[in-house]
Description:
The protein has five helices and six strands, in the order αβββαβαββαα. By secondary structure, it is of the alpha+beta class.
Amino acid sequence: MQVLDTEGRIRQQIAENPVILYMKGTPDAPECGFSRAVVETLKKFGKPYAFVNVLTAPHIREKLPKISQWPTYPQFFVNGELIGGCDIVLGMDKDGSLKELMDKVAN
Length: 107
């Protein structure tokens, strides 16, 4: 079995999880308002998603912004593509495009 470096682990997480949220805290206990807002928005869709608590994974917290070219958390990915952070997710929810995106995701 190959041991992955941090970048390899991040790329594998994004590839293996159709929906993944890199956040501060957990969905049950978000540790920042932006992460909480995204979690509350995602709850509306009732679809499962993976998450990584970057507060307990400092190596991922440090490396992901270099990979994604997005400096802040949370970071929301769907089907391997960075969707964005809190403002983007909330804006997409408001205009209906987040529902369209989530409807295309297989359970």
